Every structure is written in structure tokens, then in C-alpha cells.
Amino acid sequence: MAAGYLEILRARHAARLLTGTLVGRLPNATAAIAIVLFVRAEGGTYSLAGALAAVYGVANAVGQPVLGRFVDLHGQPRVQFPAAVLSALAMTVFAFTGTDPLPLAYAAVAAAGLFTPPLEGGLRALWPSVLRREDQVHTAYAMDAVAQEIMFTVGPLLVTLCVSLWSAQAALVVLNVVGVLGALSVVVSPPSRAWRSGPREAHWLGALRSPGLLALLGAFLFVGIALGSITVASVPYADEHGGDAVYGWLMAGIGLGALVGGTVYGARQWAGEPARRLQVLVGFLAVCYLPLTLMPGAVAMTLLMVLAGVFLAPVIACAFVLVDRHAPAGTVTEAFSWLVTTFTVGASVGTGLAGPVVEGGGAVWGFGVPGVAGGVSLVVLLATGRVLAAPARRAVVAASSENDPNRAAEPRFSSGDRA
């Protein structure tokens, strides 16, 4: 699989698109952590920090599919870069005004979330036109999930490093400036400028008219709740075991575990039905959350965080295949954005829920939330197994070639039984 990753990265524009997307998504990936640390530095409570992070997440959840639909209709550059600039400006306002007045703080984080560009969905829409072959696209999905975990491993460390060297305020500003530069790198690339969505049936529901996609979104809501609750539950634990540095290592531990799990998962081609495989992966994910309630010392807890993250990237990579399988023609960016949105909503609910749970029962109760949420996600997948396992619909492959970049539309493949 290492050779497969190298083959993809050697493809023209692939490394630039992957790197630019990851850098462009850095503000979004670190927003919850940065907001929590900033609010604490301003003297705010855990509940306020969780509430502001939740508002950001909910606004992001609203904006992603809306902006994703605009990308499908109008192309990437006209949507992605202006959105990135507006999001960064809003977060900068929050960084300089703080939590007083509170209405302005809520408005600023809401605007920052709302205008977060759908770079994640946009990259997955670009892979078919950049790589052409179905097996390469599926490998790219796995590589994409692994690369994200590098960002989620490094991101928390970057936040805590900025806080240590400068301040929580500086962390918010610097990360958002870097994110704008990443988005710019993507939208000025030839594949992004040339990409056009395939023909789509006019329907107000867009991608949501797919029963399979709805089933997948229902399960991923609870995966997001699990991950979001860990973000908040880890704060009081870290306060008792070493402070912000420990918090950064705990968050990085989840990303490291997902990085390892995603790399192993991508090391082979998987036979069998991806819907069934997703059930198994989510089951293991839920089980690995349970040991967090033991709350051992900082080193052991970091190792448990690594274990908790092992199945996250495989779950995401498998879900990418199912999204591509069930997304209606002409809605690929919107469909992937809905997955991001649902995950973000879940994470926001998790952060909002964990704040009062932690204040009422301590960190141990907060760490109990992810195990329960993971179990509910598995129940949803089991209940909708037949819908998710429905035969893949073969869409017409758009006529595009390397010699005609202006027709780099939306090639679609049947997912079949491969991940």
C-alpha cells in the first residue's frame, strides 16, 4: 500500500491538492480545541467553552452542505476561497473581542463555522478527475483518511505550542491565516479550476434524497458525538494531571491512533460488502472507547487515547466508499459535505453535552459518553444494514481526459465490493 500511496502522490497535482486541503482545513480541525483553550484563558467556564464550540460546530454543519451545493453548481474557486477568507475574518474578530460582549462572541464563532469552506468534500470530488482509475480513487480515499489523522495529530500540538509561545488569542489568528493560504493553494490549481459537477436532477433535497446516504449520516451523527465528548472530558482530566501540555498529548493520541489504524487498514484491498465491514469497524470503535473511563496516569491515559483512535480512520475511509456509492449523480461534493456536516453536528452535540456532564459528575462521566454514543451508532448501522448494502448504482462516467482539462467533470465509479 505504501507503493500505492506513492503512485497516487506522483500523479500530477495530487500532492498539492492533498497538502493544500489539509492545511486549509487546519482551522476547522483545531477550532474546538482552540476555542476551549481561549475561553479558559479569558476566565470562562467549561460550559461556556463547550457552548461556543458547539455553536461553531452547528454553524459549520449548516454551512458545509449549503456551500457544497454551491460548489456543485458554480465550481470550486468561486466558493471555496471567499468562504475561507470570511471564516478567518470572523474568527479573528472573536480572538480580539473575546467573550465580552457575549452576543458578539457567539455571532463571530457562528460566522466562522458557517463560512468554513467545504475543502474536504471538494478534494474527494476531485480525486476521480485527477487519478482516473477506480482502484486509485479508493486508495486515495484511504490515504485521505490517514493524512487527516496526521493533521489531527499535529493540530492539537500546534495549538498548544502557539498558546505556550504566544497566547490562545494568537493561536486562533495564526491557524486561520494558515488555513486561508491552504485554501488558496487548492483553488488556483488546474484541477480545481477545471472541475465541474456532473449533470444533476433538480430536486430540493439534493443528495439527501438517497436512503443509503441518510442511513450513513444517522450512524455518523453518533460517531461525532463520541469524538466531541472526548474533547471536553479531557480538559478537566488534563487540569488534574499536568495542564495544557497533557491535554495536547491526549488529543494528539487520538489522531496518532487513527493514523496507525488507517495505515494498517489501507495496507490491503478488502473483499466483501463495505456496509457489513463498516458495522464491524464501528463495533470495535465503540469497545475501544470504554477503557477511557479507567482514567489512569497521564502516560497510560495517552496510550488509551491512541487505542480509542485506532478504528476512527478505517471507519471514515469505509464511509467514503459508501458515500460515493449512494450519492445521487451531480451531488458528490454536497454528499461528502453532508457526511462532514453530520460528523460536525455530532461533535458539537458531544461537546455541548459533555460540559454539563463533566461539571455534574466529573471527567469519568464525560468519558462514559463516547462508549454509549459508539454503541448507538452500531445499532443504527445494524438497523439500516439492508439499505446500505443495496447494489451500487452505476452512474455514467463523464467524458473527461487529461488532454481536455476543461471537461474535468465528475467521473463516477461503482464502488463494488472494494474499499
Automatic annotation (TrEMBL):
InterPro entries: MFS, MFS_trans_sf
One Pfam family matching this protein: MFS_1
Keyword set, alphabetical order: Membrane, Transmembrane, Transmembrane helix
Basic and acidic residues: compositionally biased ranges: 404-419
Record region (Disordered): 400-419
Protein name, entry field: MFS transporter
Transmembrane segments: 17-39, 45-67, 79-98, 172-192, 213-234, 246-266, 278-295, 301-323, 335-358, 364-384
Organism (species): Streptomyces pseudovenezuelae
Gene Ontology molecular functions: transmembrane transporter activity
Key word Transmembrane helix present: yes
